[in-house]
Amino acid sequence: MEIFPNPTRSHYIHDDLWCIVTSANQLPLCLACLVEHLEDESMTVVQKQFNLALLADTVKPECYEVAHLLREHPLVCQHILNIITDQYTDKSFQTVSVQICVQLMDTLQSEDLYVYLLNIFEHQVQNDHNAVPFVVAALGKLSVVSSAYVLTLILSHEHLLMSLLGTHAYRDSHEDDASDCSLLFLLIRLFDVDILPAVPPQAPPLVERCLVTCISSSQSVDLQTNALALLKRLASTECCLQEDSGSWAALLIWFKRVFVGKKEVLVTAAAQCLAIIASNPRHVNVVRLILDSDLPEFLFESLHTLNIAQLEAIFKCLELLAEHDLFFRKCHAVYGLESILRSLDVALDSHNVAVLVKGFTLLANILQRQPSGVPVCVNTSSTEMTLSVITKGAQCHALQVALPAITAATALLRDSSVVGHQPMKYLQSLVEAGLEKVGGAIWRGEAGSVLASLQVTEQQLLETLMDLLAAIIKLEIEEKDVLVTRVLEDCHNIISYVGDHFAACDRSTLGSVLHFLNSLYESQGRDRLQDLSERVVSCGFIVQLFITKSEFRSNLDLLSAAASFASNVFDVLVRENVPQCQSLPGPLKTGLRNLSFKGSIQQTVENIREEEAADALCMIFYFSCLNDAQIFSASHILYAVRDLHARQVLTCASHKPLTSRFLLYVLAWASTQSDTETDCTPEDSTVETAVMQQVSELPVEVWATPRPQLFLWLFHSPHRAQGPGAALLEHWLLHTKGNIPAADSNDSSQPHVMHTLLLGQHFTPVLLGLITSQSEEISMLAKKLFVRLISALEMQSDERQTAAQLIPSAYEGVMSVFQDLFINTLHQSRHVVKNILGVMTSLLHHPQYDHTDTDHNKQLRVIYHGVHFLSSTDEKDDDIIFSGITWLHALSKVTDEDQDKAIVPVLLQNSAFLEQLERCLQDENDQLSSAALSLVSWVTSACPDSSNSNSIRVSVEFIMNTLIRHTCENMEAALRMLHLALDSRCSGVSAPVTFHRCRAFHTAGSPFTAQELRLLFCHMQQYVCSENREVQFCAVQCYLKLIQHGLETDDNLGEHFLHHPWNSQLLYYLLSHSSTGGLHLHVAELITQIWCDEDEGNAEVAKLVLESVLANEISSDNQDVMMVLVQKAKPLCTDKDLLEKSICKLASLEDSLSFSQNTLTSS
């Protein structure tokens, strides 16, 4: 069998077990011959290389037969190692020789064999310096295979390791990069976690020196990568890097060369390495060397890339370097700001969240730590660019990007050197973005899962938002009001959120909130902060602040911020609610500072010993009740007031008018609440007596709080109503001009309180008393309030008394006041009479008024006084005359026939009053003339045949102008007067009205000329088509009267009216609007007059007539007219069924039976 390789001379003595067939090459191999060939120094280099390659293939781990054979013969293995290390260490054989050594170690896994190899290496290093590259290469490869080889090297051959380190640390010439790479592999392994404890302490300095030596003239990317990896290991350990100038000067130069080379892998690794150095506090001296150099500028320049890993590494490195003050003293931030902004701008377009987070975190840290004396933005362009990028980051959809961007914005805005350069468009966008992103995540809960993933709490978000808003508020720029307005819109959300999460809110966040709110109060006018202050009280925020004050007694800054905030809030509230106070008094500020809530309200009250604290507590009660805070119950408030007053801690005194104001309203509020356990106790009476006594000595504007609860309480008792109640109502009228308080809607338990007061027995007399006030303004305002309350009662209901009971009783009261006014005084104030007339008019107009509940005798006396007063009123007082006439007209709408017969003579007996009416009819004021006309119309209809000698003179021209110009609001009255005038055609008189003409003319039997009658006839056609049914019916009567009048005075005129061209259109209109609802009697009479047989389309008219007859209710009043219509329709109707139904309906009346039969027979 052929043996491979060629057998040696001694092959025949070799044992057969060395002849094997390897699984790798499937060839018979004599391992003994191969070893002998390797020992033969006479072979050529090519033959040696071939034999080495053959041995390398033979001792691979997968050649199990060879591995088993060598494991049983360790001496053979040692012999092979001797041959390799003795003859094959030159560069031409080094790669394969190292491979063989590594394979033998890895295949046999023998520690003894490895120690044997180390012995050889140590001997070679000591005796032959040229063997060092081979030894380093072999150990480097072995260190890659397993760290156990490195550990064994340290434990058993430390001298060998130190010799190698010393040789490379202080060598003069540069060896090949491959050898240096192997060395670096070995050195990297030294700093593994499980090996580092065994490394001798003198090794790290030599390792660092070796690193400098390896990279001093290296060009290989692999070598530089390994060098960076080794430097990372060195920096990560607890060993201090040597900061001697020589080593780090070379390293810094090499780092710059790496950054300038712009190889992304090397730049990323270098940045990571520098980040590790900067993060280790042991290397602070090295960091100082880095910052003293211009290396950070090379880092900034390397930001101009799209490589994500490189950007992340550089951002992280710069962030760590920026934690050192030297970074800013060397102005690195100023130099690198533009590079950061440009890289962030590019990253924003790519939407890479990870890079953006690191970039904006770096920017925020730089802006926060930048010294105030060194502006980071050197010009307007730089400022605008910074704001632009930060704004884009704040608007980013990812909250983890927006958060550091907002932090960066806050830091930038705190720099006073850039305040004047901030464009408003960026500031507005920043405010919107901050409130939208952070605010949305907090009180709208839009980013709960994001917060969890970011490990960010809502309080941290709130603190970030507060810092931004505080920086915005402190800016001294134009148009800041726009920003402040937007901030104030969300302050309510901030207050509500903190109030709802007060217990979970940490002190840092609470401090940020308070500092922001205090800056808001300090920079803004008090008028802009009223709503915010009320919200602070109503949501319970201020009370919770007092409750937690005891928890941060040790935090003086927070305690001071809380005291300042409380003073600011109540200063605004006092200014806005107490006009006499320009600021919060000093004693109340002291009380707020000393007051704290402990446990229950009982414990809090018992711990109050100072008068100032008691006054402050009363003030808190006052504004809590005023803003419907629902924090304190009525029973708790009453208990506190009783206890403090009993212990004389809370007193009413002349030098404390505010306390009297607070106490009065607090008592009123607590006494009117449904949860008050007891109506009144002796202690309450004592407190009330003291308060009322003090109130009586103070001006009303000092103690008056015009809110519904105080009104209810004061008017609940007669002695309170006549004294403070009347004063409060008068004060309120003067300051609110009679408008119902908006506070009605604030108290859900007492809706429409002012309306409820009107139903009480003590309120109406006081209000009527104010109407009779000699002050014209107070009287007018009281009347205005009375009228508004009466009109509002249409939609209200009351448990004690319904509106139907109230209105008549109120009217009786007003009549009594009016009557007393004329009985008790000789000269009545005109404004009082006018206002009372207005109140009575509004009561008469109320739908719940019932005349049957009125004392008619008293009413007649009131009418007599009113008419007498109006008759003596000067012409200049048209408003009073108008009020009186309006009242009389409203009265005419609610009286019955018997009352009319009693009232009208009272009017007609006063000739001076009738003259006033005549003058009013001719007045240029259309409202006054219309009201007078309506009253005259009622008088004529209520008493048409009065025998009274006095009569009202009405000019025909006035009636003509009114109907033609449509100047009268009550056209129904004008039409009735026309009908009456036409009816007086012969005598010219129809008591109690006399019609006359301003200019006489000679026409017998008519007050109108023919031309006027024709004009009236045309206008009546328009009124007949009115949508108002009353106006239409009155116009129809006038239309009929005009036809009758024309026929009686002038046949030609009458025929003209009967055959007027417009009659056919009018006929169609009346029938089309009556075919479903039926015909009114006067409308039917008009149709019989104007329906002519020769009209075209009579068949259609006949059909409409019969449909209208069917829609009508037939009675004795209209049966004759209906019969006439059916007779006229019979010959023209083509629908026999419709005709038969109409005739049958008329036949239902017994009196028309013969007519029906004749009609049916003829048809």
From TrEMBL:
<protein>
    <recommendedName>
        <fullName>Meiosis inhibitor protein 1</fullName>
    </recommendedName>
</protein>
<dbReference type="InterPro" id="IPR052133">
    <property type="entry name" value="Immune_Signaling-Apoptosis_Reg"/>
</dbReference>
<dbReference type="InterPro" id="IPR016024">
    <property type="entry name" value="ARM-type_fold"/>
</dbReference>
<dbReference type="GO" id="GO:0007127">
    <property type="term" value="P:meiosis I"/>
</dbReference>
